[in-house]
């Protein structure tokens, strides 16, 4: 499983909003300057995040984007799902529960792929924007990085 560029960019943009939320609404230009994300792509991502109810926009002088909910209420799973759709290991459908497999090995593999997607959803749900901000500001330890691939 791989988080897409859209998922990464969306997470980076929202983290920037959290880290500067005391400044009020943040313009797309300010997010671009802080994160080095490409502006046209970021604008599309912010529209998707707005449609998912994760950010609100304010027009005019002093306008920009703000979080629609508190950073402790927005998980990485929410962000990735908003821009990429459901978090899953693949588009294989639901596992069979009655053993009615049409092809050899199908049932067991469907169950494994489903479980892998579920574990990723659970993992990303375990991190909120508030957690990410605390880590970025040095107020919380970073997650361990495994050297194995």
TrEMBL record:
Source domain of life: Bacteria
GO-annotated cellular components: cytosol
Molecular function GO terms recorded: DNA-binding transcription factor activity
Record-given protein name: Transcriptional regulator, BadM/Rrf2 family
Species for this entry: Candidatus Neomicrothrix parvicella RN1
């Amino acid at each position: 499983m791989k988080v897409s560029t859209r998922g990464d960019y969306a997470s980076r943009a929202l983290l920037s909003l959290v880290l500067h939320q005391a400044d009020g609404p943040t313009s797309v230009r300010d997010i671009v300057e802080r994160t080095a994300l490409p502006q046209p792509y970021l604008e599309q991502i912010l529209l998707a995040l707005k449609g998912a109810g994760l950010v609100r926009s304010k027009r005019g002088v002093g306008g920009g984007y703000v979080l629609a909910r508190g950073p402790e209420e927005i998980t990485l799973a929410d962000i990735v799902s908003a821009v990429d759709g459901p978090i899953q290991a693949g588009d294989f459908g639901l596992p069979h529960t009655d053993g009615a497999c049409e092809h050899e090995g199908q049932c067991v593999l469907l169950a494994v792929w489903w479980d892998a997607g579920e574990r990723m959803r659970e993992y990303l749900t375990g991190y909120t924007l508030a957690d990410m901000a605390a880590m970025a500001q040095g107020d919380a330890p970073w997650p361990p990085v495994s050297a194995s691939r």
